[in-house]
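User: Teach me something about this protein's shape.
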Amino acid sequence: MRVCALWSRSLCASRAGLCSGLFSHTRPFSSLPPLCARKKSSQYSCVDSDHYSSLVRAVVSTRTSAQTPESIENEDGQLFGAIVRSRPRQAPKALKNPCPLLNEAKSAIRSEYEEEAMTRIPLQRSSDQPAIPSVTKVLQKTMSASQLFYLERWKRRKIAELGEEGFKEYSMNLFKHGRLFHAAIEATLTQEASPKEDAEGPEEVSGYLQSIGHVLEEVTGVRAIESVVEHQSLRYLGIVDCVATYRGSLCVIDWKTSEKPKPFLHNTYDNPLQVAAYIGALNSDNNYNYQVENGLIVVAYKDGSPAHSHCLNAEQVMQYWEKWLFRLEEYKEKDI
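Assistant: First, the predicted structure itself:
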């Protein structure tokens, strides 16, 4: 029994020695020699990186910038031009001589029609008295630079189209048609023309009369027509086209003609100021025993298309009255 145990141990030991001997002579996993790539030399390999490391960090660092506020401003100036400084906001201009639109010395405003003689005061100029500026003259002499530019451009285009002589004839025809148009309206409203003449009117202005036909149907109670009004304290005058009731409100009516449509109030330029000036003068003038707060601008067209009517209520008239006072002060300051 003991002999068998010794024999089995010797057999295991011999096997263990055989295995260790076999593995002791094995070679590494790869029998090929290692591949060692040759490192390529660089032209910067001789640079002292430690010496220049601080410079490299300064250039690539995000904490510092090579630009300054001055350099940025100079660069923007080269790209976009010089900076335009906005002007300080100015305080609203105040009137030196404010004047109310309504006359306290007159009775209250009466919109209802009262049967009375229609006023028609002609313009009379006296050489003995100093000339009083008209509303039209004040507005013409105080036009803005943009208004003058567009007016001059329109004039140049018309001269280029018609020539000098043609433009003079064109201007004379405009004045003639305007005078005939106002005369025809006057005849219509005062019933001084026959029904046939009332419907047709002069041939040159028949289209204009057709254009305002729907407006004339709502005009009643005419109180003044082609009549001079003068502001007693502000010293200016004008000739109102018509004072009548339109859609229940007493209005100063201004008849206009135009070659182009003017569907909006701003298309009429200075006409609202003109109407406001007439209203203020009428309210101040003692030749009229009533006052007006509303205005009406009617733009007629030669081709007979329906006229555009622009109503000015009391609030709007007050706004344009203030603008008129500024223009009047500007005119007097220029001492034209």
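Now, about its shape. The chain has ten helices and five strands. The longest strand covers residues 219-231. If you'd like, I can walk through any region in more detail.
User: That's plenty for now, thanks!
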